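Q: Okay, next protein. This is Drug/metabolite transporter (DMT)-like permease from Cytobacillus purgationiresistens. I've checked the sequence twice, so it should be correct. Can you predict the 3D structure?
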Amino acid sequence: MNQWIYPLAVFLGGACFGVLSTFVKLAYGQGFGLAQVTGSQFIAGTLLIWLLVLFTKKQKVSIKRFSTIAFGGIPMALTGIFYYQSLQTLDASLAIIFLFQFVWIGTLVEYLIDHKKPSKQKLFTIFMLLIGSILAAGVLSNGFSNLSITGMVWGLLAACSFSAFAYVSGTVGKELPPIQRSAIFALGGLITTFVIFPPIFYFDFATAAAITPYSLFLGLFGVMLPPLLFAIGMPHVGAGLGTILSSSELPVALFMSLVFLDEKLQLAQWIGVCIIVVAIIFGNRPNAKGKANSFQENPGKMKAS
């Protein structure tokens, strides 16, 4: 497999998260609540990915190992719950900037756990991404007048849990095929969601039927595809650069809000999006030896798991 597949997979995994906020807002606009949106998303997403598992190669897993990998789905579930909670009190453009703090949190996690000191290039890339995110979210032009402290806290919690999920994706269960591992992650996320939000709304047939289009879309892009793409790419690029690549969610989130929510982007926001794209390219550019920096920093992770 070509080595560029791994960073591309992480990049697309982040982009999947970028489409979620718009459709969560649309679901809220139809009167659905946090429990209904989150619960139905994980039900649909988990079913979709386990159906995919039926038609792919699988590896035998002990109950103990299965349970360990399933625990990796906890931060995935918490990311959705925290982020969707922040969207109840924050505009999508403000919620995304707080979630976007996973960029530096992920690098900090990698430094604290793996003792991997970030390179000057990575630090500069993070700085560019943060500047771009501030511009893209419209903070300089619109200020923080609509800022909810509660929403801010939920957004930062989502950033922490997303960083944890990115790290887990690159370290837990790498011996399994990506689809099988992702399905176990999703099942762990589903159980976590059910513990927090018991799916009693599914006993109301009218509500279950009405939310199904949203649940299928959110399940596909929020539960099925991200863990699958991260399972493919994260073990090879590492959590630090992985968080940089998955920052693709910000420009995607802004584009989706422009098209589906009819939000207007100012010039400063477009400049911010451009800065982010340039930073992502800069952070993964080949070094003098012709290898991408992501692989150079993780020489032990070059082989397929």
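A: Here is a summary of the prediction. The radius of gyration is 19 Å. The chain has a mean pLDDT of 82.
Q: Noted. On to the next one.
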